Amino acid sequence: MSHLLPDGAVHLAAVDAHRLAQWLGGGPRTVIVPAGALEQHGPHLPLGTDGLLSGRIAAAVAERVGALVAPTFTFGYKSQQKSGGGDHLTGTTSLDAQTLIALTRDVVGSLLRQGVRHVVVLNGHYENYQFLYEGIDLALRDGGVTADDDRCVLLLSYWDYVSAESLEAVYGDDFPGWDVEHGGVLETSLMLHLEPGSVWLDRAQEHPPARLPRFDRLPVVADRTPPSGCLSAPTGSSAEHGRLLFEQVVRDLAADLVAELG
Amino acid sequence: MSHLLPDGAVHLAAVDAHRLAQWLGGGPRTVIVPAGALEQHGPHLPLGTDGLLSGRIAAAVAERVGALVAPTFTFGYKSQQKSGGGDHLTGTTSLDAQTLIALTRDVVGSLLRQGVRHVVVLNGHYENYQFLYEGIDLALRDGGVTADDDRCVLLLSYWDYVSAESLEAVYGDDFPGWDVEHGGVLETSLMLHLEPGSVWLDRAQEHPPARLPRFDRLPVVADRTPPSGCLSAPTGSSAEHGRLLFEQVVRDLAADLVAELG
Amino acid sequence: MSHLLPDGAVHLAAVDAHRLAQWLGGGPRTVIVPAGALEQHGPHLPLGTDGLLSGRIAAAVAERVGALVAPTFTFGYKSQQKSGGGDHLTGTTSLDAQTLIALTRDVVGSLLRQGVRHVVVLNGHYENYQFLYEGIDLALRDGGVTADDDRCVLLLSYWDYVSAESLEAVYGDDFPGWDVEHGGVLETSLMLHLEPGSVWLDRAQEHPPARLPRFDRLPVVADRTPPSGCLSAPTGSSAEHGRLLFEQVVRDLAADLVAELG
Amino acid sequence: MSHLLPDGAVHLAAVDAHRLAQWLGGGPRTVIVPAGALEQHGPHLPLGTDGLLSGRIAAAVAERVGALVAPTFTFGYKSQQKSGGGDHLTGTTSLDAQTLIALTRDVVGSLLRQGVRHVVVLNGHYENYQFLYEGIDLALRDGGVTADDDRCVLLLSYWDYVSAESLEAVYGDDFPGWDVEHGGVLETSLMLHLEPGSVWLDRAQEHPPARLPRFDRLPVVADRTPPSGCLSAPTGSSAEHGRLLFEQVVRDLAADLVAELG
Amino acid sequence: MSHLLPDGAVHLAAVDAHRLAQWLGGGPRTVIVPAGALEQHGPHLPLGTDGLLSGRIAAAVAERVGALVAPTFTFGYKSQQKSGGGDHLTGTTSLDAQTLIALTRDVVGSLLRQGVRHVVVLNGHYENYQFLYEGIDLALRDGGVTADDDRCVLLLSYWDYVSAESLEAVYGDDFPGWDVEHGGVLETSLMLHLEPGSVWLDRAQEHPPARLPRFDRLPVVADRTPPSGCLSAPTGSSAEHGRLLFEQVVRDLAADLVAELG
Amino acid sequence: MSHLLPDGAVHLAAVDAHRLAQWLGGGPRTVIVPAGALEQHGPHLPLGTDGLLSGRIAAAVAERVGALVAPTFTFGYKSQQKSGGGDHLTGTTSLDAQTLIALTRDVVGSLLRQGVRHVVVLNGHYENYQFLYEGIDLALRDGGVTADDDRCVLLLSYWDYVSAESLEAVYGDDFPGWDVEHGGVLETSLMLHLEPGSVWLDRAQEHPPARLPRFDRLPVVADRTPPSGCLSAPTGSSAEHGRLLFEQVVRDLAADLVAELG
């Protein structure tokens, strides 16, 4: 069916409106909305890491399932110390909750009104999740989309698709937990696979995983974040690990979408 | 110093304004704000479970550390299927994100303006966390409270203080994960310890832990939630487990507050 | 019909979701939402007075008419000098208008969506009224509830049900007006009847009713509020007066609900 | 000092910016903001009655005290059945709470930033009061205006300045209460004095004062409002009564402003 | 049909509710909403110029087409340096975007709900346009008014109806562009025609049109605005030019409304 | 100084946080924020045209002046019929005003807080302008940035930098006006120069410029928009024209920034 779209098109922004209308009219369609952030990721990864990864995974999944990918939400919710080092760090450029909720509400709502059957919001920034959820919920309420509607929205974070096998292959027994996987082995390996020119491993800093309290404290006590800004070091990252993670996540996520959405 | 307050007073609502003012003037003070929800918890637990548990834990901690407890946030953010069964279930009476954010912002901001040195927001409803966080962040921004201020706010969920030892004592090797601990052994045991008259174990339904997808789907596919509304069964709950959990959490949380806040 | 609910249950928070669903399915039902505040009430009454009184009246009315009572709104709109002494006083912990409006909108809207036929918002804090009204109006608009619907919401302040006979019995000819009844004879007597352990009459201060200008001035001129924080003294309060007021208000309000709602 | 302004100027909208700047620079200045509504007032009074009356009273007071009058808020909060007949009636064109709050906040805030020392919000529509109050409170918070500032804002409804003597002169012993003074003797008399060409007494309907419940019910039961839309009949209105009321209110209000603001 | 209304009535505020209801029931009706601002217009024009002009044009058009005119929006969006000199100038009393949007949304929405078929928002303050547009769009969304509805809203700025012939007659070849027509020949001439008593030509300042950058800079560099506050001088203004402009605009706008709305 | 950044880096998202901090510490810095839309642009241009063009112009200007470019705002305000064909057209995925205002406020505010001295918002979607302006104004208010601050924000639309010479070179005497330059010669030529693979000239439709009324009508009368969705045809577009326009605009805009910001 993709002959309805420009050759190789996977990004909504790269499609013209006329072919999009035809494509939407040709059957139930899915659009994936990647969500990232502009957030410090240590000295070895670029600020745009989260949006870049969610966008690349979304594109690969879209190719497999015949979906289109909306422009990435390149700004995200505030970085929290226990998952991203904290919002006080230079480079981290964040949205208030209401802004991210509104952005999600508007974009999801508009896609559904245009006739998109399934919207998949694919999150790549830990702190975003609940605000994306609220935006989706409000968009469905606005549109009167209830349980007996054939339209739906899925929300997920890509790391929830990393399998136990992949974890073991990458970390052995040393997986530190998703909470401190900020600028660590997962993100660094994926970037080495997908955007090696934007990784500066020689600038990475070695340090043990951050040990943060069980509570969040605000204002942040800055020196609880390691000087690198990462919550765990990228030691052991490799493009090969990245390839393995990427391919497994894309495969399983695509399969899940097919199973769920047909 | 507690002689400044009415005998045995631990709840802000039960103190008069004049003695409160004296108490606040007598040194750096802490107020704990419990947050819950009005949410279905299966056929064997009352709708107010989350607020009741966070309120009771807050009161016990407050007694230990000489703090006061604000009125509980008895309404919370929308129940999500993967952590609470879903917001479509009767009895679940929820707030939009902006409402909970605003409530938190106003209450935390007002307490700090009155001279409370430390506010501790003690969460008992999984879905609340990020919105409480945003409310706190906005209150601090409103008040111009920055890192060099001696005032601060802590945010935590009480289950993050359940120790590995307690987990093992209660679940053995069968801990199903916090995500499906909704109406399960933890909450039921705590309720049996704290409010046995509001637990109807004979009405509990036996079933395996819910197996939910890795994504959230909206609108919710209702029959993915077990008919009980619980995500795991309360089988194995006991008042004794509840006592053990309660005492350990209260002890460790109180110790943490003392260590952090002095 | 109350056999559908746990024995003696009058509070929504103390009911389980399954029995609530049965109860709602068994006929047109009423839920009462009490609204109070956390507000200074002089040296002899606790901060939670307003919510405590509206909650107790709601419970007694609910028992008579077979309704349930939702959790009390324990925070209210800003205390105004002419009706509550002013929002600058320690202990007074208030909400912005938009917060109280949103809270009311969400809770009323959710109750109606769950199948509650009649919601009664029972106010106990003078300053709340208009914001509760707006929240109700928006909830009805959201839900498309128009005049031909069989669902409705009532809003009232409990003192509007104090009869002329009660007034005379309590005050003789010296009723100072509802506007300065803040921490005065009405509230103190009710508290002496309902919560005598939370009244410290020995701490009460004697003074004439406050004489405030016909305008509101902001920022408040603090010394226009009597040092007690009360706008009239509680002299002459008694548990017996409280009992009389309580029983008369509960009786008349219950009768009014039955007459209006069936 | 009024030589700084155009001859006879009392309305801010009729002054040029350069002379306004001079006037503001010449000493502490007061601006009065009248607030009304576009609301049905029965068959004998125009929709703009509330704004017209508050605007005329403001102008007369301003002349006496050397103030300027801002453009009237010609739209107000929703008409409520117990004070205005209800918002469902044709002609009544109302604002949501947040809109009126925002309007007040912006205008009051801007006037204070321009150097106005005292702002007086003069209300002529019963339902507006609390929302005007909130708008003022937020404007002061925005501007960091606290108790030790020499700037302040007064808020009042003009009928609170009607004296007992005036009441008796106009109503004898039959004053029905301000609550049902909607389209009744007060407003009609004032209009006969101030805008006789906009009163159509021959169209007035005779009926006893409305007897409304002690609660507000929403949605409104329409036939509780008298067919005229008035809550009491204008029988007995006269231009002479209007003159008496107008002059007394203007005199006392002006005196109060002078006493309060210097 | 105008016999349904009070003699000569053209302003909604001057009509009573009963006759308005009859008029609305008598066929498809149009209400015009003029929008202005309270904004400095140099030393020779009053602050209310924009609302006064849009109101007067609206009234003249309404007379021709049998419409009514709602109360003018007398406050508008912030003055921008390139079109109004800047919001920092004394006298300029502006609304935040959200306030103007909300005001428009509420008023347009209410008029449509009352049965007005066509609403025409007639703008007289350059900076308002996009916010009026958004308010209209939201009102239509609220009301579920879609393309197949017979209700509609028009939005326009009156200067878009100045014809090429009028421009040439007034300016010859020296039309400086609408962007700098702030306090210039157009507005001054219209005021001389419509409100000569509120024009003080002897106070006007002569200067060439302002030369402002192609960008907006915030905060404003104040001395880029001419000391007069006008962006072009009123030199060459006359009541005769004003008459010509007024009559041509009213004629063409009325014709356009008839052609579009029937 | 650009040696502080990764080689050739011009995009903020491609820089790591540590080098960004150094760069910001090394002198007064400028960040450019491009703003676009996801909007139909006829059958021959992709939906992302506006963001793509503003992003490419921003990057070229940034290279010349040593600035960085923030991630593009890829969603914009609603397409209006007179400038973009209308928001009802498939593919057009727009934001409400408040969303775009909030996005701008958050991003501009965060950049200033991080130490960016000058922010330049470079607009490429006609309808965005006023909402970007409001977002900037609110960010400055939040941050207390007043006229005597050395920080500032510039806002501009790139077409305001097209010179008269360029216009003549591209259009001869047939420039139809910026208002109908949607999917026309300007945008198409720029795209042919910058992204030839995303232009499908063979799919372009020939038609005269749209003749739209002087008013906006909502809901939109759909068939007033040409079937192509463009307001003028791209006939006469060429990569050469695009190169000329691009280079002239980039040159003049860069020169303007240097002149204004140093």
Q: Any overview of this molecule?
A:
The structure is a homohexamer of 262-residue chains. By secondary structure, chain A is an alpha/beta fold. Chain A is 39% helix and 9% strand. Chain A has eight helices and five strands, in the order αβαβααβαβααβα. Chain A has helices spanning 17-25, 49-65, 81-84, 97-114, 129-142, 164-171, 185-194, 239-261; strands spanning 30-35, 68-69, 118-123, 152-157, 216-218. Chain A has a four-stranded parallel β-sheet with strand order 2-1-3-4. In chain A, strand 1, helix 2 and strand 2 (68-69) form a beta-alpha-beta unit. The first copy, chain A, starts with 16 loop residues before the first helix and ends with a helix. At the A-F interface, helix 1 and helix 4 of A face helix 1 and helix 4 of F. Strand 4 of chain E pairs antiparallel with strand 5 of chain F, so a sheet runs across the interface.
